[in-house]
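Hello K.,

You asked for the raw outputs rather than the summary table, so here they are, unedited. I folded two proteins back to back in the same session to keep the settings identical. This is the first:
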Amino acid sequence: MKSILFVLLIFVSISKASAQTRQEQNPKPLILIDTLFTYNESMILHPSKFVSISTIEPKKAVQLYGSDAKFGVIRIQTLPDIHFARLSTILDKYEIEDRYRTLNVCIDKAIVLQPDKILADLDEIKNVEVISINNSATSDGRQSYINIVTM
């Protein structure tokens, strides 16, 4: 996703600001899009819809937003009239059956570790599909997951 590359550039400045960040294996700054929180791998938003981006260093971010912001915060202001949705709304829109809703979730086949943090501009989603693959490690030889396909 194009938004990931753009936000990763901002992340570099935050990661340099904190010795704690360098010691962690997988530091993730909290992302605040308008008034909604997410993480980089859980965000579906094209950079052309950004109005401004700013960062908050980890120490100040924790004071403002708590321990979830221990790696800093990236604040993104967007254009008006973007239709943001969380995972349940996305699954409803694409009529994903209840029996599949506990599956792992991917965005463009990349696993999302915290699917409850998914925040998407609905206009950036092309399709949502349930994919089954052969996997000898499972009892039935198949593994399934939900894949959100972006534009």
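The second followed immediately with the same parameters:
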Amino acid sequence: MRIFRLRGRGLHWVETDGEVFALDDRTLEYLGANPTAAVLWKALAGGATRETLVAGLLAEFDVDEGRAARDVDAFVSELDERGLLEPGGA
């Protein structure tokens, strides 16, 4: 089971009013995450499985499991493509 985790170096972020704002030092890109994505972002900061991420969305929002899973997959894929996740995982 893979553990997804945000990259530890060169990625700075804060949460304010339920949203996440981040700066990637490598690309100098500024990123913002809405409340839905912020739930995932905070979980990824400590490391989380896909199942944990889906469960987090289900607990926080009124969505069905299929939608939550699609949102998790899309978000994790985007972060991975941007190089914001630690490589590999368990």
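The radius of gyration is 12 Å.

Happy to rerun anything if the numbers look odd on your end.

Regards,
P.
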